[in-house]
User: Fold this.
Amino acid sequence: EAEVAQSPRYKITEKSQAVAFWCDPISGHATLYWYRQILGQGPELLVQFQDESVVDDSQLPKDRFSAERLKGVDSTLKIQPAELGDSAMYLCASSLKGQRGSTEAFFGQGTRLTVV
Amino acid sequence: DAKTTQPTSMDCAEGRAANLPCNHSTISGNEYVYWYRQIHSQGPQYIIHGLKNNETNEMASLIITEDRKSSTLILPHATLRDTAVYYCIVRVPNNAGNMLTFGGGTRLMVKP
Assistant:
């Protein structure tokens, strides 16, 4: 069964350092999402891509976070510099370009980031 | 997207049906009801969705009230592996994709 691949699975970094996460969506999925999930809370959308274009990054802290999906396939999320409050699970998801409400999103296993 | 209200936590005995409620009193006519669950340390997993008719698949059943202001996810024979956080989400897909807005969810504990 096709899966959304994410790496690394776990990352520990010191504050003020740069960190990057990678996501490979399910083949053929045009829509890709990055979510952040703080422990005990539901996931929050950071950025949404349609092919290589950003369609929603209103919740992305652009002073330190960046995301790209250059060829419309895999994607990288970067944090520079990392802060203690960035410790969280970073989830990637993908979906087919939507029919009206009919297309579910598939999530990867996530990257658990700990900033020390 | 309409706001949803779910109980914070629920318990269920193994082998019994788990009925998870969700209130979405401000749902609009073109919004669907989606259910996802998240097992500890994993990404969310799609379960089922519906618009107005009841739906059933191999994982669960979704019962939507006639006025669409609430719904219930039913796991007919809960197992220990169904212990997870269950999220009810109502949304209308935007033009470019299918953004999901998660609330706090219901933490379901299935007990032996």
